[in-house]
Amino acid sequence: MNNRSIKAAKVLVGVFLLVSVIFPLITVFLNINGADIAEIFRTDQFRTYLWNSLTTTIAATLLSVGLAFTLAWLINRTKIRYKSLFSVLFTLPMLIPSISHGMGLVLLFGDNGLITNMLGINIGLYGPTGIIIGSILYSFPVAFLMLTDIFRYEDYTTYESAEVLGVSKLKQFWVITLPNMKMPLISSLFAVFTMIFTDYGVPLSVGGKTMTLSVYMYREVIGLLNFSKGAIIGAILLIPAVIAFIIDLKNEGEHSESTVAKPFDIKVNKKRDIIAYVFCIVTLVLTILPLIAFIILSFVKKYPIDMSFSLVNVQNAFGLGVGSYLLNSITIALLTALVGIAVSFFTAFLTARSKKTFSNLALHLIAMLSLAIPGIVLGLGYVLFFNGTAIYGTITILVLVNIVHFFASPYLLAYNSLTQFNESLEDVSMTLGISGWHMLKDVYIPCTQDTIIEMFSYMFVNAMVTISAVSFLANLRNMPISLLIPQFDSQSLIEATAFISVLILVSNIVVKGLVYLTKRYFVKREVA
User: d(Cα 124, Cα 421) in Å, to the nearest integer?
Assistant: First the structure.
């Protein structure tokens, strides 16, 4: 790959990112009507929705990150067994849409829920309580994955010195652990806050009369086709995501590479481990209860009248076209994953394995910008920008919006992997007459196959569970199965809704299993 072809590739990638990221975002702001701004901000209704969003989001974020931090510490700082199994099970909530968590809570704790009927206790689910609980279920696995990895790289030397000096365990936590975790904690707080603040799935299903900004935007666009007001609310929803994006950019340059001089030495403490087992098991039970509820309701005759085993709900669901919508979802997810990893990996190759020029830095910045665009805002941008084009109303636009929505994380995975190679590789290859294309094909791709597999898994699973980015763009022909959940819920088809959540969960578990087997296959082949 010579200089001319590299420049051509950069232009091609740059045009793709401009058309798919920048232009739709600009279109959102261009569609804002000044009169609507004044109207929205003057109303008590808007202030109520904003207050609801902020209070529930702040409460859910603090509880979610607190739970994730506690679980990450217990997994990495105790001697409990089955740590890997616990870690996998804690991430199961990521394999179903956010709205499914709300539906699961309704099935369990709603006015006619399974646990409500069994115990006769009504927790007052609908409203802030339900939004906060559902948001925690939906978001804590993300924070857990962000934090548990950091614990693995803590150096024990500092703790060893503190023990020699007689510093208590509690003080070690305050003066060593928390300062070490400061930046990951801030990143996870902003990431979770943005997820919850912009999500409409949970508040739509359990919010009751408590309206949030994201639900308000969803109803203005879907229900009333008021794109100007939707754009205004979308711009407000962008604010925390943009702040998080700026902080992440700032922190990126502050991270210092360090090595673990001494792995963490976990002392024997039976009391601590018993508490850890109890906390992890209780959390796990509460986490998978909604999943169990989905399975139960999928195979009963008529909830809650007749709870005997039956396949009638499965037959009814497929009679309503669930099979074709599942096929749509799998097709969209496969195309998103395959095309997405090709584009994101190639973009990372251009930015990570070339000199730090202005064009490379610009590509890198735009590639990461999707982190700061909530799916619901991106979807609105695509409605406004691509309306009337050849791809509007087709599966292509759903694949494209998913690729952009989930682009940044796979891109950063590839970018970080490619920057680990020696900086002189390109100079050596040029001296030997080896083209950049052959370096990509014969060196970088084979050596980063684990990363590529993880990129595929990430994009497939997220494309299966998302409802925000595609909700404004799907129609009856190309609708993914996740969008049937709010549709069936509004028609009181709760058994079919439960079965859809089970189908999405099973599909993602199958893909996760195939990814695990593929990784093992490559490991065995390398050993052989």
Answer: 55
In Å, how far are 109, 116, 127, 216, 281 from 119, measured between CA atoms?
10, 6, 21, 34, 21
pLDDT in tens, 104-143: 888 888 888 888 888 888 888 899 999 999 999 989 998 8
Contact 503, 291 (CB under 8 A): no
- CATH number of the structural domain spanning residue 333: 1.10.3720.10
Tokens representing 259 are: 């090595």
d(CA 7, CA 380): 32
Question: Helix, strand, or coil here: 390?
Answer: coil
Total tally of structural domains belonging to the chain: 1
Cα distances (Å, whole numbers) of residue 177 to 46, 68, 184: 41, 15, 12
Domain coverage including residue 336? 1-30+299-528
Cβ proximity of 266 and 464 under 8 Å: no
CA distance 207 to 200: 10
pLDDT digits (tens, 9 = 90+) for 31-54: 888 888 888 888 888 889 999 999
How many angstroms separate the CA atoms of 492 and 480, rounded?
Answer: 19
User: What whole-number distance in Å separates Cα of residue 203 and Cα of residue 218?
Assistant: 11
pLDDT at 507 over 70: yes
Work out the pLDDT band at 150, boundaries 50, 70, 90. confident
361-417 confidence digits (pLDDT tens): 888 888 888 777 888 888 889 999 999 899 998 999 999 999 999 998 888 888 888
Task: Tell me how far the alpha carbon of residue 380 is from its chain's centroid.
Answer: 19
Q: Alpha carbon of 273 to those of 44, 76, 100: distances in Å?
A: 51, 11, 33
Write out the H or E segment, with its range, that includes residue 341.
helix 322-352
Q: Is residue 275 part of a domain?
A: no
pLDDT at res. 257: 45
Is 75 part of a structural domain of the chain? no
Identify whether 13 is part of a domain: yes
- Residue 407 lies inside a defined structural domain of this protein: yes
Question: Which 3 state secondary structure label does DSSP give 300?
Answer: strand
Within 8 A by CB and 6+ apart from 335, the residues are: 395, 399
Dihedral, CA of residue 415, residue 416, residue 420 and residue 425, to nearest 10:
10
